[in-house]
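Supplementary Methods S3. Complex input for the adenosine-5'-triphosphate-bound model.
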Amino acid sequence: MKLSRYFLPVLKETPAEAQVVSHRLMLRAGMIKQQAAGIYSWLPLGFKVLRKLENIVHEEQIKANHIPIQMPIIQSADLWRESGRYDDYGQEMLRIKDRQDRDLLYTPTAEEMVTDIFRSHVSSYKDLPLTLYQIQWKFRDEIRPRFGIMRGREFYMKDGYNFDLTKEDALHSYNRHLVSYLKTYERMGLQAIPMRADSGPIGGDNTHEFLVLAETGESEVFYDSKVTDLTFGDRDINYADKSACQAVLDEFTSLYARTDETHDPNLFAKVPKERQKSARGIEVGQIFYFGTKYSEAMGAHVTDDAGNKMPVHMGSHGIGVSRLIGAIIEASHDDNGIIWPEGVTPFHCGIVNLKQGDPEADDACEALYKSLSALGLEPLYDDRNERAGGKFATMDLIGLPWRLTVGPRGLKNGVVELTSRKSGHSEELPPKDAVEKLAAIYRSINVGDFLFN
Ligand code: ATP
Ligand code: MG
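Predicted complex, serialized as structure tokens:
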């Protein structure tokens, strides 16, 4: 992409309404625009990051053998009356009437609808296990939308639902989700700690929330400092292997880690004093096992060989896809702007032309642009007729992990400069070597390999 042709409405001033750094930086970098309280347009740069996160989520869900579907945003109230949640959900549910005076709602979650799909089409235990998921917009009429897209009213969520014959199978589904979530967050450059949570209105007693530690987090968390040493790494997990998934759950949940809702000071007292930590965290996902609550209420049964009807065991599992962008920025920024992890960056590399209009500099930039693109990478070439200082400030603000700086002086010596946004470290390289280095970095994280279809 060439910046002169792109739509990147960066702001010079720091927006007064933004209280947290991620919100400020998303506005300044021209990623989002607020349209009403807690409702945002996604401008090109923000939309690109959202798509990157969505792709990572799809890829990891599909690896775990979960099947993507898409359910409607606007749902009929009837299904929600069957489960009893139409009345129970409270004011966060946005209720709508159509012209026939029928009750509709904007989906805050989709247990009812997915259970309806299941009961309409699945009747034999042989069709289990089954996990369906979607990535879809949700609406919750939050009393206090704030922190930009981190607590919006409209937000983008991955929600998955497992259907299993037995509790044991459903707990395997739960563990599979935990493993796939750890992998997902890690690919986004985040450490998200699973913490035992409170199930709230969904019901059930097995639930973990995933929290990213950040000063601006809304949840208060208490944990054994050793949990932050746990990293998922490059593990190849066989999702069909029950004990392998259970082992990951045990590894990542046996140390003390709780939110304020489930915190137990007596248990915390058993953690050695120097390892007792309290901090703030951003909830970026949650997994639940709730048994037969919805399947019994809504008649989602399967029949065994002897003709016995049994309600299926279910769980639901959510990732806050749009909130994650805020969480990533909270975890990775400096005074000059965002620092995208390579796995989610909107463009892989910036190209700054120090002397636009100089034939040699222009040619060298074009050549870099072409060779990076030919490798399947997406460069953002700042080809505007602007001063170098302004170009650097824009690149730093929007946070691309790598920048190539091209100017007549370097070209005389046959080099361009490659700079890491994170470390600030620069090195001078022949253009060909710089391209190879970038290709190697991105190849190592398989960027460009996956297309959701
Ligand atoms: P919270 O406690 O933050 O209100 P929740 O527990 O009600 O969230 P879930 O039903 O667990 O939310 O939804 C799954 C995920 O969706 C959450 O972990 C969070 O990352 C994201 N999410 C929930 N509410 C919002 C919101 N208002 N804006 C953005 N993301 C949200
Ligand atoms: Mg939650």
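The chain has 14 helices and 23 strands. Residues 109, 140, 142, 151-152, 155, 157, 283-286, 318, 320, 322-323 surround adenosine-5'-triphosphate (ligand 1) (CB under 6 Å).
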